[in-house]
Amino acid sequence: MKVCVRELFPYPGYEDHVKMNIQTDEGGKVSMEELQAQIKAYKLGEGTTMRDFEIPGVEEGTTLKLRVITPANAPKPSPVVLDIHGGGFVSGNLDIDNYRNIAIAETTPCIVVSVEYRLATRELPFPAQLMDCRQAYLWLTRHAAEIGGDASRIALHGTSAGGNLAAALALYLRDHGEQQPALTVLMNPALGVGLTASQLQMGYLGAKTDYAHNVFAIYANMNGEAVSYYAAPLLSPTLEGLGPHMIVAAEYDPLRDEALQYAMRLLQEQVPCELYSAPRVTHGFCALDRPLTRWVHRGIAASLRREFGMELTEI
Q: Using CB atoms within 10 A of its CB, is residue 75 exposed (0-12), middle (13-18) or buried (19+)?
């Protein structure tokens, strides 16, 4: 099945983004370079600071870079959100999440820390990336006070491949008796294996499907053996015992159905979960500063305030 842009009704302001992300007869009218320029055109609010520093890495003698965004109005001590960026496991960096992290930090308000995990290669596949994220999370549980944070109030936020890693980290922490996140926010997450209806509906065929499957094969180190549910969280036999989740899907996202399936399983297994299906946008829509994106970020901030035990305000 192939869906053309003329058969869709993109949310105003996201037309070019939808065309670029979905296989269409028309093709996109905006280049990746132009979108990257929009994504990186972030601004720090008055008094908000952003700094990088390093912590010990997983292996002895290695380091892991963290980026800390602290808004001027952050409580003292402040709740902390650990952000995990996307990029299909094999690409991406701290810069691509600056806009959303600044928005969440300033709106909540709280400290947002993003982690520069090692990207997946055939020589460095899963679970290296997950272990890097765990290392950053455990560092925060022990050293949050060093950045003005509250170690008892730490949430997770991940987008796309970062959503996969955030979901997997919550599962790993549960399984190993470690501190559960106050809230795990999954934005357009990649959670399963195999073809879904939303991938077919969004024209996710040919080269795009091959690329997605190939990069996941690199990350998960697929060699004919069973895939770990830490690599594909939808494979987990149970989601019981997890902390509260917030999942944001997108109507035109090929990954939509994975997000919906995970949310339904959480609810059915009595894990607190809120689910939002953003209308008429596609994968990565929250990287663009548009009214719908700002509404979603305010919703994330409201949910973080709720789980952090902060005063609730109108969004």
A: middle
How does pLDDT run across 186-214, given as a tens digit for each residue? 999 999 887 788 877 776 544 455 566 68
Q: Which residues contact 188 (CB under 8 A, 6 or more apart)?
A: 86, 159, 160, 163, 248, 249, 250, 253, 255, 259, 283, 284, 285, 286
CB 136 within 8 A of CB 165: no
CB atoms within 10 A of CB 216: 23
16 a catalytic residue: no
Q: Catalytic residue, from 17, 253, 257, 297: name it.
A: 253
Asked if residue 79 has a cis previous peptide bond (ω within 30° of 0), the answer is no
* Known catalytic membership, residue 303: no
What span, in angstroms and rounded, lies between the C-alpha atoms of 87 and 83? 13
pTM across the whole model: 0.93
Pair 133, 154: CB distance under 8 Å: no
Cβ within 8 Å of residue 184, ≥6 positions away: 155, 156, 157, 166, 167, 170, 242, 243, 244, 245, 246
Task: For the beta carbon of residue 129, count every other beta carbon within 10 angstroms.
Answer: 25
Residues 6+ apart with CB under 8 A from 213: none
- Show the tokens assigned to 225: 């053996």
List alpha helices for 27-96, DSSP H: 32-39
Residues 54-69 have pLDDT tens digits of: 999 999 999 999 999 9
| Residues constituting the chain | 315
Whole-angstrom distance, CA of residue 95 vs CA of residue 47? 20
Among 257, 283, 297, 303, the one annotated catalytic:
283
CA distance 67 to 81: 11
- 3-class DSSP state of 201: helix
97 is catalytic: no
Do 276 and 248 contact (CB within 8 A), yes or no? yes
